[in-house]
Amino acid sequence: MEGLIIAVIFAILVLVTISLGVRLVPQGYKYVVQRLGKYHKTLGPGLNIIIPYVDTVAYKVTTKDIVLDIPSQDVITKDNVVIIANAVAYINIVTPEKAVYGVENYTLAIQTLVQTSLRSIVGEMELDDALSSRDQIKAKLKASISDDIADWGITLKTVEIQDINPSPTMQKAMEEQAAAERLRRATVTKADGEKQAAILQAEGRFEASKRDAQAKIVLAQASQQAIEKVAQAIQEKELPVVYLLGEKYIEAVKGLSESPNGKTILLPADIPAAVRGIMGAMGK
What we know:
By secondary structure, the protein is α+β, with helices and mostly antiparallel strands. 59% of the residues lie in helices and 23% in strands. The strands form three sheets. The protein has a three-stranded antiparallel sheet, with helices on one face. The protein has a three-stranded antiparallel sheet with strand order 6-7-8. The chain has a two-stranded antiparallel ribbon with strand order 1-4. α7 (239-258) packs across α8 (271-283). The longest helix is centred in the C-terminal third of the chain and has 67 residues, at 168-234. The radius of gyration is 54 Å and the shape is rod-shaped. It is a single-pass membrane protein. It is found in: Membrane.
């Protein structure tokens, strides 16, 4: 009976020893092994053998890319404007033993480093540049962090600026400024329109006056030519003149009778005598 118990204990001890000495590392991970409390080696993916009770797996480190969310923070620009910025970083652990022994908490360390660098970079830029230069901020951020975390056996794949916005107070001020600028542009546009309209109206009046003057000159010249031709035609004869003036006289009286204010028009019984009277009056 005692022999059986010893055999069972021995079998259990063998199984425990084998389980402690055989390590299956999954793909995407590396195990850091310590021997008697001191770093010994790093196990890669697959079957690995270590010395039981002497070697121990101290850390299990992923070799896949790690996404680090950088919390939002207030950042003051060069022109003393508060903006809110956050980011996301993608890192990869290439040397696990450096990552676990080089810094106490590498994720917290990198988050803090990114926040500090982001404040420093944006602090050297004015508000407009900070809001429109994400690629420039990203490049500077990556360059400043890569060298620092390389000592920890970690590479920075990329870092992206998620949001970079003015504070609520600044946003309100910017909206008011934009509204004032739009109102100013609208006022200038309206004034320009009124100015152009006034210029066009003045040019129209000037052109109309010039054409009226030209028309009057043409009419005067036509009247002059007509008078000259009539004078040449009648010479010393009075009857044609009396006929022409009588015709004009009747047309004028007809026009008066057709006007809204015309009521009763009396024609002289001897129109030739009336025309001669007019000619006599004109001759005086």
